[in-house]
Amino acid sequence: MSFTRSFVYSRHKLLNIYSCNLSTSAIKYQNVQQSTAAVKRICIVGAGPAGFYAAQYLLKQLSDCTVDIVEKLPVPFGLVRFGVAPDHPEVKNVINTFTKTAEHPRLRFFGNVTLGEDVSLQELRDRYHAVLLTYGADQDRELQLDNERQAPHVISARKFVAWYNGLPGAEQLQPDLSGRDVTIVGQGNVAVDVARMLLSPIDTLKLTDTTEYALEALARSKVERVHLVGRRGPLQAAFTIKELREMLKLPNVETCWRAADFTGIAEQVDKLQRPRRRLTELMLKSLGEQRKPRAAANGKQFLPIFLRAPKAIAANEMEFSITELQENEAAVATEASERLPADLILRSIGYKSSCADAGINFDPKRGHVCNRQGRVLKPGESDAVEPGLYVAGWLCTGPTGVILTTMNGAFAVAKTICDDIANKAVDTASAKPGFEPGSRRIVNWEGWRRIDQHESEAGKAKGKPREKIVSTEQMLRIAGV
Prior knowledge:
By secondary structure, this protein is α/β, with parallel strands linked by helices. It has helices at residues 3-19, 49-61, 78-82, 94-102, 121-127, 157-165, 189-199, 202-205, 212-220, 241-248, 274-289, 394-397, 403-422, 445-460, 472-479; strands spanning 40-45, 65-71, 107-111, 130-133, 139-140, 154-156, 181-185, 225-229, 253-255, 300-305, 308-314, 317-325, 331-341, 344-347, 351-352, 362-363, 368-369, 371-372, 375-377, 385-391.
């Protein structure tokens, strides 16, 4: 390290130590390297898995870059914090990796900054050599049924997950759990997570970071049966074997399959690829075992139902068209139908992104940014890309895959950024100022650490990993802004 770089690093290290002892809302904070030498400035919008994985790659591969992460919420980690089920703490361990990235001396975190409101995309592009959009998918797909939006007993699984996970504002949801039957439309892992939360013993959930208000509501819940309904067959079920195993092991919950749904399935098992074969074998094994008497002490049941497509919503019930699978595995509705009891209907048929800024070339039908391998396309031009503008994560691909999928995708787009910089496709010759918070109430990484400590201490007093703060104003106050 040269004398100049060593001096700059030492100076800012001292400034960082000093700023950690201050309660401040301005940018006298954090491990910021403002070198006088030419530096490549990259801004990432969104502090979820895609954003942190991309930052990790960029900081490792570009020794002369700084990375700023801009996040709408005062707290980081996106769906790892607000989407992963509370009883899956092992999945949240990835936060340890993200924390190491966030504490890198060339990274800054700006929480409580909303793209399209507090700062525009054009402003960010003017202040950085490259901008990477990774703010995820914050909306859910609808069933497109009459009175879907008006019916008070129809809510999205996304909002229900946000409710028990403590997303600010979600505490207002107040789902009605006074009925016996919940019907979940969709058979992905999110749908199974929701079913498990509804049927799990409350004493088990009390040991997780489920919000206190959700625990109180779940303790009062009268839900006894959860229907998990999908339009295709068992061979197309979107949940994975891990999630199914957990459901089958839930104490005092009986899993009830419909034998007719599995007609001809056993004969196809040997032709399936290993993950699908293992999942199908587990379903068939469970189906065979349910013929034996299994009395559930509290009468709770988990009822997966296949080959049913949403048709109509009524009070306390839902009508489904009976479907038939075509050779291409498409489910086609027949004239026959079935009604299922549904005191509460949870829609879980996928997420979609929103367009946070008018300057984004966004495809509203597909619900993601128009791009080619992570390079954002210019509006109205199918092949031309916006130099220095990129997208990763669900905002790029749509809501597919798990965290590992997101990691691989984020690494690939980050490599594209590095390649474009190396090939001069991105102009880094001129200096860029980076983000300036001005008078905004910004939560830096030190502010997040205060929130984190407060939540951990509050949770410890209740025997939980943490008690999440759900009020944005309280977060800002604890962060010192």
